[in-house]
């Protein structure tokens, strides 16, 4: 077996050394890989661009981007399989195992003479239709090629299964799984169903055989196809040496009716209910069946009674279930594709009508919306499912839903695609830090610009603010400042609610950045006025109020605002906002030297941080708790250990805040060298972030350290730097702390 395998039957898979590789999210990129794999000759770039891209999408640029992603998948350090030059592109598949190529090769070489084990291995590799879910019906040439390949693969697999079942007829237990697979592939083929009935009878499972007889007969008749008698002959063949019947799961079995007495049970309401049950399987309940099918309670009850009497459905500890899963599978596959999509849409719309209450509901919503064939409905369902996951701290699942959504909307165009892409990026960033945050921020800004061009002002604001948060978290404060202002500009002509949120968020971000505080106060005043007039509430308002009050050294007022913001964020499911409000309350505890209540707050932050995305929140909570331990127990060891993890998280602002608090504690405990070391690192972070308040505190602490260490030149240097910063707009609490340090030598001299 080769080191690299490519599976095109079912969902596309690339496997290297037994490990399934992560595929690019772009559906067109994956489609390009499959297309190249099925063509041994080089294909022109022009042909590939026409096949998968439209002119407004910059086809040649998109092709180059897709090829760069595929090289990482198929090339090795010593083996370049993807070959591209100025004119053409090809994929060398000589040492790649490709399931569909192996299937066709086996059929051409002769199924009748191949080893049984080889046939069985090939049959097991069939995981579904060729490129399942990757038809790209908006691109007719690729779509037609995909359908042709799919039909050819299905014929080859049918021939393979037919051969397998015939050659294993004397080993019914080994042939049965292949017979089931054959029937699933060809539900209206009477010969396939006859073989299944024959094998079930040979294995002493007559009730199952009878169900297959009835189901096959009905399906073939409903499809308007003739019955040639193979099913009845399979049922009436002499059953020699069958032994006892299979044990029953019921306490009493009514005698099987004769052909004249057997009711036509899979008709009318019974058929309709069983179809909906198959669509909802494995977990069913009569209430859900009633809501989605439109049938009243009595009709559903009678249909379920018929189904239970014929042992298709059973009620156990887990509720209503199919007695055998293959019954549900065959019922589902017998529904016409268009009707099936309409049924999935009905279930998805019903689930979307109310709030999601558990992960099962979230997954069901995503599944049924995707199966409806409506890309927009499926993407919106993934957004809702992901948001629910964030509320219950299922961050990995939220990330998975976001990635699925981004891959899904690759074929959409226009305003809907841009808006959904922004919502999915917001979900992705909330679920986990970005691996390439600069590229991520750039992509979000580009989407925000497109949203602005399309007039989608609310989504433009979302994009600019998301980019601002990403850049702020990584120290690009000037870019974060510009994108914050752009978010507010984007919604000046929007609806009132969007204007309020944009102005409040902009005021909040400007206060966090300590930039344009006069403008922040003006925007906040306008937001408050509109919010009161139109009865609009949003946590950005008290967060901005709290930050501006904190900057003015009005701690009691700020505390009230941050508590209000924390409550609103919790109610809205904004866990990051809740953490940030609690984090600022903790900073106020530190500045008040109230370390006992701060330790209690740290415990709350730690629990919240553990369940948030894998960012700097949890390391910060652990380091803050260790700082409280230092303050209360005079033990600096755990704090030094916790700082290592926080440094790895690249959280410069959080590092600077905690280092400055620790330096204050060091000075109070006469550890000037340690204080100098911590304040120096804090100053470095504050300079990178252009944070004047933290720079002022760092210089003030370093001046005091130099005084205690007898470094006159150092003291003079840092004192001058602090005085210069004090003339700039800085936080009132930082100015107060600087003045206290400035007055300390004089107080000691008087004493």
Automatic annotation (TrEMBL):
Belongs to the AfsR/DnrI/RedD regulatory family. Keywords: DNA-binding. It comes from the Bacteria. The keyword Thylakoid does not apply. PANTHER family: TRANSCRIPTIONAL REGULATOR REDD-RELATED (PTHR35807). Residues 98-236 form the Bacterial transcriptional activator domain. Residues 242-263 are annotated as: Disordered. SUPFAM superfamilies: C-terminal effector domain of the bipartite response regulators, TPR-like. Residues 18-91 form the OmpR/PhoB-type domain. InterPro entries: AfsR-DnrI-RedD_regulator (IPR051677), BTAD (IPR005158), OmpR/PhoB-type_DNA-bd (IPR001867), Sig_transdc_resp-reg_C-effctor (IPR016032), TPR-like_helical_dom_sf (IPR011990), WH-like_DNA-bd_sf (IPR036388). This is Bacterial transcriptional activator domain-containing protein.
